[in-house]
Amino acid sequence: MADSCGSSCSSAKTSNCGTTREAQDAALAQQENAITRSLGKIKNKILVMSGKGGVGKSTVSVSLALGLAQRGYMVGLMDVDIHGPDVVRMLNMKGSLEPSATAGGLVPPLYYNDNLKVVSLEYMLKDRDQAIIWRGPLKIQAIRQFVADMDWGELDYLIIDAPPGTGDEPLSVAQTIPNVKAIVVTTPQKVALADVRKSINFCKTVNVEITGVIENMSGFVCPHCNQTVDIFKTGGGEEVAREFDLPFLGRIPMDPRIVVAGDDGTPYLSSSEESPATKAFAGVLQAIENRLPPVKTPVSLNIAGGCGCGCGGSN
User: Which residues make up the binding site for ATP (predicted)?
Assistant: First the structure.
């Protein structure tokens, strides 16, 4: 069989043993060009990271994307948490990937509203409860396709929600998206701070600039008196930021309404509600906007969520 294979593959252009090396190189070069074209239309690329799970990183990612869109900026939200994609559920988006493509051969993302586009592996699955059992190469290729094959268009901000840790997904983002900036989310406890130091050192190793640190779940907002109680401690994130000479973007207290709204698909932190949590998040949002200014003056926006089918219409 080896001899048969060798003779049939003697010509680089006519192979019966799969794609030739020349064809693979050409496809890779074509994808690299597509990635470069796509990223050339995006001003700010922000990777939202955490050292460990359960610190509210996806909540921060979704709220940041929606908050910037509500301010009138063109925003993309890319979910690269391959094994646990949650952003479409947190936004209550019901659409699915359509086979049609744009004039440029690109695939349209889901539209939450006129200013917010969303890409997640979950809406590409027929069964959203299906387990994704992939090794590194498949995850890397999926992330590259999220950039190369999707019709992101002109964006002021691309928010990238990564899984916790320093594995394939954040590394692939760092290698695929030049000049991506990182925002590190942590909680105040020592065990979370130990892991967030690893995320910070990861960014240093792969030369990703850190825009700042967010301390999430910093205290608890009592649902009865609306006062903040420090049951989970506070100040740990700020201490780590000071230790590594990084900007501290702010602390966000826990609020039961954040959990309820996340389950209902109506993000709370970026809402118009008045509470210590929403006020704190508004300060974080302003700090990020100041450090990573947008392309242009915000455009007008209908802030109601869209139907999710790509038309930009109402539910």
Answer: 51-58
pLDDT, one tens digit per residue, over 101-128 is 565 788 889 999 999 999 998 887 777 7
Q: Which domains does the chain have, with CATH numbers?
A: 35-290 (3.40.50.300)
54 is in an annotated binding site: yes
Q: Is the pTM of this model over 0.90?
A: no
Element (DSSP H or E) covering residue 146: helix 136-148
Give the residue carrying structure tokens 């069989």.
1
Q: Say if residue 223 is exposed, middle or buried (CB neighbours under 10 Å; 0-12, 13-18, 19+).
A: exposed
Q: Is 279 annotated as a binding residue?
A: no
Q: What is the pLDDT of residues 52-105, one digit of tens each?
A: 898 999 999 999 999 999 999 999 999 999 998 889 999 998 766 655 656 578
Please check if 185 is assigned to a binding site: no
Overall residue count recorded for the chain in this entry = 315
Residue with tokens 């190469």: 137
Is 52 annotated among the ligand-binding residues? yes
Q: Does 57 show up as a binding residue in the annotation?
A: yes
DSSP character for 121?
G
User: Long-range CB contacts (< 8 A, 24+ apart) of 128-136?
Assistant: 128/89, 131/83, 132/82, 132/83, 134/82, 134/83, 136/168
What number of other Cβ atoms are within 10 A of residue 254's Cβ? 21
The answer to whether 51 is annotated as binding is yes
Strand partners, 117: 76, 111
